[in-house]
Design goal:
Structural class: alpha+beta
CATH topology of the largest domain: Beta-lactamase
Number of strands: 19
Strand content: 5-15%
Oligomer: single chain
Strand order of the largest sheet: 2-1-6-14-15
Largest sheet: 5 strands, mixed
CATH superfamily of the largest domain: DD-peptidase/beta-lactamase superfamily
Radius of gyration: 33 Å
Number of helices: 23
CATH class of the largest domain: Alpha Beta
Length: about 650
Amino acid sequence: MSSSTIRQQTNPNKPPSPKASFRQGVVKVAGGTVLSLSLLASSIIAGGLVGLAISFRNLPDVRSLNNYAPPETTYIYDIKGRLLSRLHEEANREVITLNYMSPELKRAVLAIEDSHFYHHHGVNLTSIGRALWVNYKSGGVVEGASTITMQLVKNIFLSTDRTFNRKLSEAVLSLRVEQVFEKDKILEMYLNNIYWGHNNYGAQTAAESYFDKPASELNLAESALMAGLIQAPETYSPFINYSKSKQRQAMVLDRMRGLGWISTQEAEAAKKEPLRMGKPTAWQNSKLPYVTDTVMEELEDKFGEEVTLKGGMRIQTSVDYYLQLKAKESVERGYRNLRRWGISAKDLQIALVSVDPRTHFIKAIVGGVDYNKSQLNRATQSRRQPGSSFKPFVYYTAFASGQFTPDSIVNDNPVSFRDGQNVYSPKNYGGSYRGPMPIRTALIQSRNVPAVIIGSKVGVSKVIEICRRIGIKSPLQAVTSLPLGAGDVTPLEMAGAYATFASNGWHSKPTAIVRITDSLGNVLLDNTPEPQLVLDPWATANLTAVLQGVITSGTGRAANIDRPAAGKTGTTDSERNVWFVGYVPQLATAVWIGDDANRALGRGVTGGGNAAPIWRDFMKQAVVNEPVKYFPAASEFPRPKVQKKGN
């Protein structure tokens, strides 16, 4: 989806500029002797205030408004442009140009807030005179005389203290603003800055919240209601008191009729028109919270929290909304099945991550069973031992060294290694040994001793180097037991690494973000994939061929999806973590099951028996519309030259 597509969703159907007809309507009503006298007096007052402005040298420079960028809401979309979430601090705002605002909204706001806006120079003598008289009689400031320009400078530059000094500063700044900016620009800034209630700042987000439509599509009835909110947004909010909101709407419509901007018939029809209300959008929960959290992690790393929450970015993610829902449902079904299986771990959790090998874009990410109960994103934030699902990294390293093939023989017999001051003696799951066997058989049957032997021959430091190439950044220690998954990794790292196997050695950094633009459509980040060949194709193809056997005849038979697929089970000591990580040419997915407190899940819980069925459930749905594709054969690539250990 292009940035222009997102732009059309947020500001669709740009209306023609209403400037000419709109101003004619205002001029027609506001004409006359009284207005002429008011304008003359306003000019005299304005001239005096300009002179007085010399003494206000410490006031802000209004030319800074040329570069003023109010905090804007950041929007997150799925790959097809579906809105997933809004990110913001207090101000939920989307800045749009004046031409993207309904003419009815502009008339309604001017009618109730400043009907002489296009005729004064920032201050209105009639309003000032009335306010001075009322305030004199009351002995304090109880009524304002603010024009739209004065409201704008107050909101941006000044405090809200109701003092004569502040009002005078407001008037001076308003005159300065009117000298620098055209009226339409002032009105545009005003409509984008004012508060409309329920954390909505600016006309666009207010229209979306109150009426579930953009500001360009507001009709007369809706515009009058919104204009009436400006004076006291929460007091007149239709979400709080619909009756009072309608009364205020009627007042705006009567004012527009009195000015001659609408007819009596139009006013009465608008009063009677039923309003289809939306709902507050400012603090809505994300539709896909784990996706939003993953995106937030990336955004804060690249731009910082403040820019993320205030920068008005438009973020296109790589996740498809409906595929994410399928992933969530697969996790929930898996959880229910585990409970029926008798797993009673108090904090039982499941994480699932799916990555497209062709791009390394994240296609689905579920960080836990129930986001409402726990917001920890285990897919990206929890590091756990991968068990035997780490073995493919060891065997790839062996194949890439040129010293081994899938048919090379390795002994599955008792063996001991000196690891520092300790002696390490690996054991197979179940405690048995089966003697000499091909590497192919050792991996398909997930034998532990052969993996440790091969790891010691190629060097565990070399295995770590390969892990770094394919995106595993978690700390890994060069210990003899590393081939059995002695280090801690995240599900996202495992999915991304296996995606590199699925692409036969081509790697990009996994990401959930395809593209970021600002609110004007300027590109801030373009994550168009630039894959690099980081693995030897012959070695990778051999590894994939063996991992296909894991599913067809090994420990991962429960992951069979009736098409070519490769993968590996993983079960750690005491069944604390169980995994299945696998792939087809179009998608790689990692499934992890564990307890948040790292307690044992129970005897008999394995990656093949419990994680593989969840993987199969999701993958069968995820690739249902994908054509069946086959992995490349090792015979298509030259065998690497033999490398010496440590090279």
